User: What shape does this take?
Amino acid sequence: MRRFDYYSPMCFICDLQSASSATVSTSTTTAREEPVWSARRAFVLAGAAAATAAALPAAAQVDVGRSSALRKLVPADELESAARQQYAQMMSEASGRQALLPASHPQVQRLRGIARRIIPHAPPWNARATQWQWEVNLIESPQVNAFCMPGGKIAFYTGILDKLKLNDDEAAMIMGHEMAHALREHARARVAKSSATNIGLRLGAQLLGLGELGNMAAGLGTQLLTLRFSREDESEADLVGLELAARAAFKPQASVSLWQKMTATTGGAGAGFLSTHPSGPNRIRDLQANVPKVQGLFEQARRG
Assistant: This one.
């Protein structure tokens, strides 16, 4: 199997200092995708991405467009498998540093409770989510950060909870945002795009059988350490996360108060989270504009 040295999740740029792990739910593993592509299939995927892009959920209230079809150039099961392996290694290292907060810790229980409410609303955004082995971690660290790896591997740092004094609704907005990155397969798309860029889209002999793209994806360990999501990815994650949280009965307006707190606490810089999550008036305005779109979902969920 190709190896993705997946040490640093995309929404998580600072060096990992500690981590803690707890399984929320488990499920069967996914069937492996075809490991070898023909040049014909590669050309079609690379040249006609829009035609094969995934559609939005029929009931979606926010408009984030279609997912990039280029992500299909990288096998989802391999990326998720590599993320699971790296995640387990990170948890083991954290345990050795005694940084793994136990299941009995109130904040761990709190985060897992939030996750249990949001996860049931994930599959409409990505059918693979029904097979993911979701986990939630709480990392004892002053870092203002959180992430979700491909395959549903979630972690928060205590710094983001403590320094921002997050209430449950605000913590749910962060969790929904990070889950949205995984559900929209932003990491998978970025790996594919990076691979294509690095080989200059050489559709000659180097691309026969797509072996070159596969090799490039397998060798992206160094790039994954510093890979950033685009502003478009961040906007998608904001809006999909907002809808996920609203469907789980978390107050939509918390998305706005979260970013107001983030900006006020960090001054707009200095936090690992903000290195990949640009804040500012535009982001807050976008969220404010979309809060009414999901308010009905929140009201319905709260009544239900």
User: Anything to note?
Assistant: The CA atoms of residues 275 and 291 lie 25 Å apart.
